[in-house]
Each structure stands twice: as structure tokens, then as C-alpha cells.
Design goal:
CATH class of chain A: Alpha Beta
Order of helices and strands of chain B: HHHHHHHHHEEHHHH
Number of domains of chain A: 1
Strand order of the largest sheet of chain B: 1-2
Helix content of chain A: 25-40%
Largest sheet of chain B: 2 strands, antiparallel
Strand order of the largest sheet of chain A: 1-2-4-3-7-8-9-10
Radius of gyration of chain A: 19 Å
Strand content of chain B: under 5%
Oligomer: heterodimer
Number of domains of chain B: 1
Structural class of chain A: alpha/beta
Number of strands of chain A: 10
Number of helices of chain B: 13
Helix content of chain B: over 70%
Order of helices and strands of chain A: EEEHEHHEEEHEHHHHEEH
Radius of gyration of chain B: 19 Å
Largest interface: A-B, 45 and 52 residues
Structural class of chain B: mainly alpha
Shape of chain A: globular
Number of helices of chain A: 9
CATH topology of chain A: Rossmann fold
CATH architecture of chain A: 3-Layer(aba) Sandwich
Largest sheet of chain A: 8 strands, mixed
């Protein structure tokens, strides 16, 4: 039976749950949203990762990206995400897979210098999972990758295809259409009380950044559609989207280029609970690790 | 699996035990010493729990113990008199045994946590919350004041009195608000884990929940009456940072609700359940 171990991602506040299965071939990166963080948004994935029937995470390393979501504009967060992804994909950092015991004063005389969780192999699959604002950050990142790649190709340069355009996307309650007019008030009800209070000013700023039809979102939708047409085999433009039927913070809707049959609805879930795994609610896992959605032209 | 347990122990040392020991050894005030000592008590019992659950390897854990707890036991008698009241009474005899023998002291066999997937999942999740909390300096400063010098809260709130040298942060109003936020998140995370364990509906889930309460609830110690100070801080944050967005009654009821879910340091105080 595979086991996942918590490991700090070097040089960041992010962490990973790393599988000890030699067959591990997938990196799943979780990007939280407003007032979220790398642990609470994704409760209880950390608990259930090895406890689900059929071991859906057996071959996956789970990364929980930590960044100041509402404290930054979308574009700044995209830069942080890009740096993070470059660090862990396609090859995980060796520091994640091994511990240098020679650095510890409690090592025993017969211990080897290092202990390893498993052999290091490059990943063959990348899944980006975003909640709320995190989904917008992921979509902006993918659009930017495609735009840069397209510009280089148009310029006649010999370009290596961006490995990130083969990423699969799972978006949970994405803020891609914007916030509901009453969303700020709704936040008080669904988000941790203390966070809502302490970060209230930042929340209001973020809300004004992402009003329906605002420049940031209109540009994202337009450019995503353009790039989806230019890269018809890229599955990064075919996200799986999960909504709760009690969504009360963001507007529910899809981009024109998204596949309507890749939309999933969770009964009785709101903006926050839609991504929280429980014993009786495993959709947040099923949607993430299900088979790849087939993109047009493949 | 043996390698996995060594890696678990290395993470525990880097995330929790070494930072706790550093804070304890470098403490420059009575409050910082008391809080540093309390964190070491917590770290000791995390180590014991990890051993029981076969989450840590025994030989390496004993070696780690011998490297990290020298100063702790050097001041044990003195500081346990100051801080012992924070913890479940079960802790005192176990710590005294460890103090006498200078060795990790496990509970009697039938009271231990067994090796099981549930135990590993619980330790992984709880230690994640613990390490995250320990990284938040403002949250730790807030808890140290809450437990060991609560009168300072009023001075900070009313006069923006800036207290220097608590866990490397200057505790002023902003730090207090951030600390309050960090503690609240920590509490909600552990409350969720308790709910998950109770859903497991097995004796082991209940036993683990009880052990987690012993290990975590001391930070916001309901049986020592922290309600009033938490409400006071919440009302201040609401007024100072949100222009009184919520009325005071609602703020107070949110705090009371959280404390109800949080519960007590140990089940004996909660009424003998478990």
C-alpha cells in the first residue's frame, strides 16, 4: 500500500505529500484562493490521501502551493506560480525524495548518509487544481504560456512546446466570471471569521479587481478562447470544473472555449465546502484524478 | 517503511522540535521561557505519540530525544510548577518518569495508540497544522500572552503598547490581529480533524481525538477561562480593522461557538467523556 509523506518544498512555504510508490508519475498542484491557505482550503485531502478506496492518489505527488492570494494582483501570483512549477515539474527536487541523514545529530552509527523515499523519475502528468481566485491564477498562467509560445513560433524561432500546455486543469468554484454583487457579504458567512475580519481591506480590493466584466477577466476570457483555437490539442484549455449548487460568492459560468460536459455539480456544497473532501464526499478527488479529458483534434 | 519513518522524524525535528527548543533556549523573559517550555512539553508528547503509532522509528526517536531535551529537563522542576497547570494531569507522571530516567516514557500498553492507517493519517494532518502554527510568529506571541501575561492584551489594545522581544516580533495592534487570525485558523483546522476522526466511528478514532486534544487544546485553554480575552480581541479586531462591520453580540457569539467546538484540554474537564 502506498504512503504519502509530508515534505517541505525547499525555499518556499509550500509543502508536498510525496508518494513512496516507485510508479509515481503524476504531480498534482493545488492552488488556493481568497482567504485560503495551503492546508485549510484543501481539508481533508491531507488526511484521506492514503485512505480512499482504489488508492486514487497512489501514483501522485500532491503539492500545496502557498502564496498571498488576496494580497497580490493576479499577474504577480502568476509569476510566483510559474517559478514554483518550474521548480517541481517535470522532475521533483531531489530534496523532496531524500533526507541527508549526515546533517542530523541524531543519526545512528550504522545509518547511511541519505535515506530515500523512492527513485527519482520525471513526471509524465501534471494536474493543476485551483479554487476560486486560484483558478483564475492558473488560467492566466496557461494563457500566458500559450501566448508566449505562439509569439515565439510566429517569430520564426525554433520553439520547444511548453510542457505546461499539456497540464490538466481542475477548477473548483472558479472566480473566472467574477464575484457576485453580494459575494463580499457572503464571505463573512462562509470563510473563517478571523480571516474575513483581519483581511477585510484586501478582500474589498480583490473584489474590485474581479468584478464581472472587468478588464482582467474579460482579457483572460478573450485570450483563453484565442489560444484554445490556436492550440486545439492542448488539454490545458479543457478544464474540468466543479461547482457547489449553493455557490454564493462567485458567478457561475464557463468560458466559451470550455467543454460543457466537463462541468460537475456538487449537491449541498457552497463556495468553501465544494473542495473539502469528507468520508461521504469524494467528488473533489474523483474530478481531479479521473481520466484525461480528450481535447479537440487529438 | 523504516525509511519513511526516519523521514517523518526528520520533518518533525526540523518543523517542530528544533524550533521549539531554539525558542526555549533563547527565551529572554519569564513569559517566553514558560511558553518555550510548554512547546517542549507538547513536542515531547508528539514524539511519544509518533512512537506509539509507529510513525517514528524507536531507535532514532530515542537518539533525537537525547539530543534535544537536555536543557528542558535541566529546568523541568522549576518550570513545570509554572506551566504544568496548562496540561492534562496525565502528563505530569509521564514527564516525571522521563525526567527520572532521562528516556522517552511510553504509556502502559493498553493505553497506547496502535499502528494503523488512521493513526498515520492523523499524525500527518495534525503535525502539518502544528508546524504551520509554529512558523507564525505573531500567533505564537499572541498565545504566549494569552497564557502567561493576559493583562498585556488590554495595554496593547487600548494604548497600542508595543511589546518587544516576544518570539522575534514586536507585538503591537497589527501583530495582535495577525496572531488572533493565526490562532483561529489553527483551532478551526484541528476542530475539522476532530470531526473527521469522529466520523471514522472506530475506537481508535475516538482515542486519537482524545490524545490530540491533550496535545493541542492547552494553547487556548478553555478550562482556564480564555473566553473573555478572546472575545475582547475579536471585538477589537472588528472595530479597528473593519469599522465595526459586525455588532458586538455577533462577534461574541462567533467566538463562543468556536470555543464550544474546540472543547477542553482533556476529557475529564469536559465531563468524563472518554
Amino acid at each position: 500500500m502506498p504512503t504519502h509523506l509530508k515534505r517541505a518544498v525547499p525555499g518556499t512555504a509550500s509543502y508536498a505529500l510525496v508518494s513512496d510508490a516507485e510508479s509515481a508519475d503524476t504531480a498534482i498542484v493545488y492552488v488556493h484562493g481568497f482567504l485560503g491557505d495551503a492546508q485549510t482550503t484543501w481539508e481533508q485531502v491531507q488526511y484521506y490521501v492514503d485512505r480512499l478506496r482504489d488508492e486514487p492518489f497512489k501514483n501522485s505527488d500532491l503539492y500545496f502551493f502557498d502564496y498571498p492570494a488576496e494580497g497580490q494582483f493576479v499577474q504577480a501570483s502568476v509569476g510566483r506560480l510559474r517559478s514554483f512549477l518550474t521548480q517541481i515539474y517535470p522532475s521533483p527536487p531531489s530534496a523532496l525524495l531524500e533526507v541527508r541523514l549526515r546533517d542530523f545529530d541524531w543519526r545512528l552509527p550504522h545509518d547511511s548518509d541519505t535515506v530515500s523515499l523512492r527513485e527519482s523519475h520525471p513526471y509524465s502528468r501534471l494536474i493543476l487544481v485551483g479554487h476560486s481566485l486560484g483558478a483564475v491564477v492558473i488560467r492566466r498562467f496557461i494563457a500566458d504560456e500559450a501566448i508566449s509560445h505562439h509569439a515565439a513560433r510566429k517569430g520564426g524561432r525554433d520553439v520547444v512546446p511548453s510542457r505546461f500546455l499539456d497540464a490538466e486543469l481542475t477548477l473548483m468554484a472558479p472566480a473566472q466570471i467574477g464575484f457576485q454583487p453580494t459575494g463580499a457579504k457572503a464571505l463573512l458567512g462562509v470563510f473563517p471569521f478571523s480571516l474575513s475580519l483581519v483581511r477585510w481591506a484586501a478582500v474589498f480590493r480583490a473584489f474590485s479587481d474581479l468584478t464581472p466584466g472587468c478588464f482582467t477577466l474579460a482579457q483572460l476570457q478573450r485570450e483563453t478562447a484565442e489560444m484554445a483555437a490556436l492550440f486545439p490539442t492542448s488539454i490545458a484549455f479543457r478544464p474540468r470544473v466543479l461547482w457547489g449548487d449553493k455557490e454564493d460568492v462567485v458567478l457561475v459560468g464557463r468560458f466559451d472555449s470550455d467543454l460543457p460536459d466537463a462541468v460537475y455539480l456538487a449537491a449541498g456544497k457552497n463556495h468553501v465546502t465544494v473542495c473539502k473532501l469528507t468520508k461521504d464526499y469524494q467528488l473533489p478527488c474523483d474530478v481531479v484524478v479521473r481520466e484525461k479529458v480528450v481535447a479537440r483534434g487529438t | 517503511m523504516a525509511h519513511n519513518n526516519i523521514i517523518n522524524l526528520a520533518e518533525f525535528d526540523q518543523d517542530i522540535l528544533t524550533p521549539a527548543r531554539t525558542d526555549f533556549v533563547n527565551a529572554s523573559s519569564n513569559r517566553a521561557s514558560a511558553y518555550g517550555f510548554s512547546k517542549m512539553v507538547g513536542a515531547y508528547f508528539w514524539l511519544v505519540l509518533g512512537l506509539e503509532a509507529d510513525y517514528f522509528p524507536a531507535d532514532h526517536a530515542n537518539s533525537l530525544f537525547s539530543q534535544r531535551f537536555g536543557e528542558f529537563f535541566g529546568r523541568f522542576e522549576d518550570l513545570f510548577r509554572t506551566c504544568g497547570h496548562l496540561f492534562d494531569p496525565e502528563f505530569a507522571p509521564l514527564l516525571r518518569t522521563a525526567f527520572t530516567h532521562r528516556a522517552l516514557s511510553l504509556r502502559q500498553e493498553d493505553l497506547r495508540i496502535s499502528k494503523h492507517e488512521i493513526s498515520r493519517a492523523t499524525l500527518r494532518t495534525a503535525l502539518l497544522a502544528e508546524s504551520r502554527f509554529l512558523r507564525e510568529r505573531e500567533a505564537n506571541a499572541f498565545v504566549s500572552i494569552l497564557n502567561f501575561e493576559p493583562d498585556l492584551l488590554g495595554q496593547i489594545i487600548e494604548h497600542d503598547y508595543a511589546l518587544e522581544g516576544v518570539a522575534d516580533v514586536v507585538v503591537n495592534r497589527d501583530a495582535l490581529a495577525l496572531g488572533f487570525q493565526g490562532v483561529w485558523t489553527y483551532m478551526e483546522t484541528l476542530i475539522e480533524l476532530s470531526r473527521t476522526l469522529l466520523q471514522e466511528n472506530e475506537g481508535l478514532g475516538l482515542r486519537l481525538d482524545r490524545r490530540l486534544r491533550q496535545l493541542t487544546r492547552w494553547r487556548v485553554n478553555k478550562h482556564l477561562g480564555v473566553n473573555e480575552n478572546l472575545i475582547k480581541t475579536a471585538i477589537f479586531v472588528n472595530e479597528h480593522y473593519c469599522d465595526g462591520l459586525l455588532d458586538e453580540t455577533r462577534v461574541a457569539s462567533r467566538v463562543e461557538d468556536l470555543l464550544d467546538d474546540w472543547g477542553f484540554t482533556h476529557s475529564r474537564v469536559a465531563g468524563g467523556a472518554g
